[in-house]
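Moderator note: this is an archived Q&A kept for reference. The question asked for a predicted structure of one protein chain; the sequence and the answer are reproduced below.
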Amino acid sequence: MEINDSSQVGQGSALNSKFIRLAIVLTLGVSIFLWVWTASALGGQIQGLRAELDSLKRTGQPANSDTAEVAELRQRVVELEESNEELRRALEGMSHTLSISLAQIMRKNNPAEFEKQMSDRHRMICILNLKQIDGAKEQWAIDNKTGEKAIPTKSDLYGPDLYILGEPSCPANGVYSINAVNELPVCSIDGHSL
């Protein structure tokens, strides 16, 4: 019986791709679980300390009392909140690093699949940007009582006090054309369209 090498390669890369996806999902799931578990544990401790502090206040001590016990509880609440923030940042960094590492593994093991996924992701982000531009144009036209043939400029749409905070950009380095209100905005990259 003769084995077809090309079919084995195809099956191997498909399995490899599925394994990498599963590893990414599991790793992110574990990271999220750990973050939620840690945050809820610290949150419970913070709530407990705040309850103790409230109890001390209700027992007749002035609200601004600086007894050693109250000061210690206040300090502990601050420490726990800082610790919670440090853990959150560490988990975000770990998740980001892990995502990059897994993407590099996927790029190395299955470059064609990786490029396809990146291309799809870029296209989806670009389409979301185009929808945002289109909505901003429509709102601009309503606010400025312009006709449907009016063409807004970038300075009409993008800025801190305008319709979109900053100018959107295509992740695949395409160039956006805003166009008239009655026309859809477009990207210069094929396939990036509404």
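Archived answer notes: Helices lie at 5-58, 68-109, 111-144, 154-157.
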